[in-house]
Amino acid sequence: MIKYAQVDWQLNRYCEHQCYYCPGKWRGGDLAHPVERYLAVVEKLQTTRYLHAEQIKWTISGGEPLHFPNLNLLLRQIKTGNSYVRLDTAGGDSWFNIMEISPYVDYFKITHHYWQNISVLDFIIDMCQEQDKKLNLIVPLEPGKILESKAKVAELSGRGLSVSEQQLFNEDGSLYRDYTKQDINLMYGRPADWEPEPVVYIPVVGPAVTPDPNWVDPTIKNGSPSYTGKLCYAGVDYIHIDSNGWTGASDCRSRTLGNVFDLDWTAPADAFECPMMYCHSKKDQERIRVNQ
Predict the structure, then answer these.
(1) What per-residue confidence (pLDDT) applies to 33?
(2) Given this model, what pLDDT does residue 220 score?
(3) Residue-level pLDDT at 262
(4) pTM metric for this prediction
(5) What is the pLDDT of residues 261-281, one digit of tens each?
C-alpha cells in the first residue's frame, strides 16, 4: 500500500474570461457529457486507486474549472474518499464562485489576471488563511506592463504569500509574440535598452572527441539495465485525463488506457508488464512503482 496515487484531470478547455494573451486552444469547448458520466469516472478511479493507495491526490484544472457545470458535485464525490484536492483556476470574478466549492478544495493554485477584481483575490487569500488551505499565486507578466506585474508579485510576496511570475508563450512554445525587446529585457532584470554583445564564432579545429567508455546513462533507475517484463504501476499510481477524456499513464506512453467516457471503459486496477528497455523520465521514476 502506497501513501497516495495521483490523478491529474483537465476537466474542460472552456474559459469565459477571454484573456487577450491566452492561447486559442483554451478558449473553446464545453461540457461534452452529462455530469453523471464524470461522476461515474470518479467512482471507477476511487474503486481502483484505494486498492493500492491510502489517499488520492487530485489536480483539477481546465480551461477554467470554475466554468465546469456542477463542479461542486464532482468535488463532493471526490471527497467521499480520503483525498487531497488541488484546484488550478483564475479564481473567478466573484467570491461566490469560490464559496460554493471551498469545502472540497485543500490547495488553491490561483492565476491572478489583469481583469480580476482585487477584492476577489483578497477574499481568496483571507479564506485560505482562515481555513488553513494551501495557496499559491501566479502573476502573468503582461506585455507592456512588466514592471507593474513584477510590482504585484513583490506586493503579494511582501504579505507572506507564495507567489511566482509567469512568462507567456504562444501555442508553439515560443515566447509570446507581443513581448517587445524592452519587455524581455525587463523580464530578465536587465536595463530596458540592453543590447547583447555581438558573438564572434571561432572555428575549433582539433582531434575528434573519443566517447568515454565508462559513461553510464544516469536516467536508468536503480542502475537496472532493462525494465522489460517488470511490473509497472503506470495508470494506477498516476493517471492523466485530458479535456476530451483521453488518458495518459506515463511520459513513455507504454500503457494505453483509452477514453474514460467510453461506456465500457474500466480504470486500471493493477500493474502491467513494462515493455520498455529504459525509464528516461525522472517524473515517472518518482511517481510510479516498478517491481520485479
Answers:
(1) 81
(2) 58
(3) 93
(4) 0.87
(5) 998 999 999 999 998 888 888
Nearest C-alpha neighbor of 250 from the set 266, 261, 239, 265: 239
Please give the pLDDT value at position 26.
63
- The segments of the chain whose pLDDT lies below 70 read 24-32, 208, 216-225, 292
**Whether residue 189 has a cis bond before it, omega within 30° of 0:** no
3-state secondary structure the chain: CEEEEEEEEECCCCCCCCCCCCCHHHCCCCCCCCHHHHHHHHHHHHHHHCCCEEEEEEEEECCCHHHCCCHHHHHHHHCCCCEEEEEEECCCCCHHHHHCCHHHCCEEEEECCCCCCHHHHHHHHHHHHHCCCEEEEEEECCCCCHHHHHHHHHHHHCCCCCEEEECCECCCCCECCCCCHHHHHHHCCCCCCCCCCCCCCCCCCCCCCCCCCCCCCCCCHHHCCCCCCCEECECCCEEEECCCCEEECCCCCCCCCCECCCCCCCCCCCCEECCCCCCCCHHHHHHCCEEC
- Cα-based angle 175, 180, 182 (whole degrees, multiple of 5): 115
Parallel, antiparallel or unpaired: strands 290-291 and 231-232? antiparallel
Q: Which fold has domain 2-194+236-271?
A: TIM Barrel (3.20.20)
Question: 15 and 62 in contact (C-beta within 8 Å)?
Answer: yes
> Buried b vs exposed e over 234-266: b needs ≥16 C-beta within 10 Å?
bbbbbbbbebebebbbbbbebbebeebbeeeee
Per-residue model confidence (pLDDT) at position 203: 81
- What is the number of residues in the chain? 292
Pairing state between β 107-111 and 83-89: parallel
Where do the structural domains in the chain lie, given as residue ranges? 2-194+236-271
Check residue 223 and give its pLDDT. Answer: 54
pLDDT score at 199? 86
